[in-house]
Amino acid sequence: MHLSHAEGDLTLEALWLRERNPDDATLDPLTGQRLIEAADLPLELNLSEAQLDGDTLSLAFSDGHATSFSLASLLAECRAPQAYEDMTFWKGDLSRLPETDFGAALEDDAALLDMLTQLQRFGFVRVSGVPNTEDGMQSLIHRIGPLRRTNWGGIADVKSVANAYDLTMTQRGLEPHTDNPYRDPIPGYIWLHCLCNAGIGGDSTLVDGFSAAEHLRREDPEAFACLTEVTPGFRYHDATTRLESEGPLIELDSRGQVVRVRFSNRTERVPALPSATLRRYYAARQAFYRLISGDDFTLHLKLAPGQMLIMDNYRLFHGRSAFQLEGGVRHMRQGYVDRDSTASRRLLLADQLSGQPDIKEEASA
Ligand SMILES: [Fe+2]
Questions:
Q1: Residues with Cβ < 8 Å from 312, sequence gap 6 or more?
Q2: Cα 179 to ligand 1 centroid, rounded to whole Å
Q3: How far is the CA of 178 from the centre of ligand 1 (A)?
Q4: What's the 160 CA to ligand 1 centre distance in angstroms?
Q5: Hey, which of 8-17, 121-130, 330-339 has the most confident mean pLDDT?
Q6: C-beta of residue 59 within 8 angstroms of C-beta of residue 17
Q7: What CATH number should be reported for the domain holding residue 185?
Q8: Which band of pLDDT confidence, cut at 50, 70 and 90, is reported for residue 364?
C-alpha cells in the first residue's frame, strides 16, 4: 500500500499491516500482544481494498480479513527514531551537572521522572541527600527495580582494604573503564554512594563514551570500524567464580548507532588473531584510549558524603584519581540496577504523568 502524507511518501507491505491489525481477532485488547500466529499468514497476501476517511484507514485483505487503523497511530509506528533521541552528548567542560535530591525522588513521581530523564539524557545523575547509612540508597533503588545481586553480594563496599580481590579496593587511580564486561548481562547502571571521602585525591572521573565514540567515527573512521568489528574477551577469576564474556569496545545497533561501549584494561584478553588484525586493533584501541583518558572528554567531580552517582554502564566510562588515606577515609558503597527496569520506570512514569493510559494488567511474553 502506498501512502502520501504531510511528512512524505510511505510504502507499506500488506503482510506487515495484516500481522498488526488493531482488532480483537488479531491483537489482545488488554496487552496488545498478538493472538494469531504471524508465520501462518499467507506469504502472497494482498490488499483488496483501502479507504481513508479522516484518521480512519479501512483495509480489506486477500485472506478475507478486514480492519481499520488510526492513520496517526500507524504513521507514529512507522516513524524512524532520531539518532540518539533523548540524549545530550557532553565533554569534560559540561558546566551544569545533572542533579537531583534523594528525598524528592523518593517521595514524588515527577521528581523521580526528572531524575530518570536526566539519567537517560546525560548517562549519569548526581543525587544529594542520600541517608548516611551503609545501604542508604536502597529505598530509592526499590522505587525503580530490583538490585542486581552478583558474586560480590548486593550493595558492596568500595574501599581500600588489605588483600583486595579487585584493584578497585586499592588506593591506586583507576583508568576509565566500564564495569564487569565479563558478566552476561553486563550490569546496566552503577549506583555509587559516598559515605566518606576524606582522603586526598580520589576524584571521580566520567567520560561520555557515546560522544567519544562518535568523535572517533568522524576523526578516524578506520579505528572506529575496527573497534566495532574485533571482539575481545573479558574475564574475571577468583577462588569461587569464573566469569567470561566477549564483545566489541564499540557496539552498534541495527541502524549503525552506538548502543554500548566496553573498556576494561584489567580484564580484557583479545584472542590470538592474525597479526594484521591485531596491529589494526591495538592502534585503534590506543586512539580510543587517548580520547577517553584525555582532558577534552574527562569530567572530574568529587563526591561528598551523602551524595551518590548513578551511571549508565553501557554509555559512560568512569574512573578515579589516585588517593592517599593519611588522615582520612574513603568509603563508597556500590550496587547495580538493570537497564530494562530503569527504562520501564521512566517510560511508564512519563505516560502516567502525561495522562496517557497504560496497560494495568500484568503481561508476559
Ligand atoms: Fe568501576
A1: 119, 123, 124, 188, 189
A2: 5
A3: 6
A4: 14
A5: 121-130
A6: yes
A7: 3.60.130.10
A8: very low
104 and 31 within one domain: no
Ligand 1 geometric centre to CA of 217 (Å) = 25
Average pLDDT of the segment spanning 109-128 = 98
Specify if 234 maps to a domain.
yes
Residue 210 and residue 252 in contact, taking contact as beta carbons nearer than 8 Å: no
Compute the distance between CA of residue 169 and CA of residue 190 in angstroms, rounded to an integer: 16
Cell readout for 337 is 540496577
pTM comes to 0.90
Count of residues making up the chain = 365
Q: How far is the CA of 313 from the centre of ligand 1 (A)?
A: 9
- Residue 58, domain extent: 2-78
Do 230 and 112 lie in a common domain?
yes
Phi-psi region of 106 (alpha: psi -120 to 50; beta: other; left: phi over 0): alpha
Question: 194 alpha carbon to ligand 1 midpoint, in Å?
Answer: 14
> Which CATH number fits the domain that encloses residue 23?
3.30.2020.30
Q: What is the amino acid identity at position 60?
A: A
pLDDT at 198 (0 to 100)? 75
